[in-house]
Specification:
mainly alpha
């Protein structure tokens, strides 16, 4: 019985599929971040919060903690009831 000794976890097909899914998700996050940015600039606190998370994690935008915390998350946290609103939607990690 011949056992395969190759330590690769993925074959070429799996690697290409992974790359395709990764590229697709980056493209989707890019549009999502743009949508959040439009709403955030208009004062939507939930969009400001979500955009801050996008910047913190580099989702659809370049990772930038200054944009994340100093600009968008701090604006979102000034909105009345934003913590409660996000918590009741189960979007805040406790």
């Amino acid at each position: 019985m011949h056992h395969r000794t190759n330590s690769n976890l993925f074959g070429l097909k799996e690697l290409l599929l992974f790359c395709f899914v990764l590229c697709l998700s980056v493209g989707l996050w890019g549009q999502t971040a743009k949508d959040y940015q439009k709403a955030a600039k208009k004062g939507n606190a939930e969009a400001q919060y979500q955009l801050g998370l996008c910047y913190a994690n580099g989702l659809g935008v370049a990772q930038d903690y200054g944009q994340s915390i100093a600009k968008w998350l701090s604006k979102a946290m000034r909105a009345p009831n934003i913590i409660w609103d996000l918590y009741t939607k189960s979007e805040v990690m406790v």
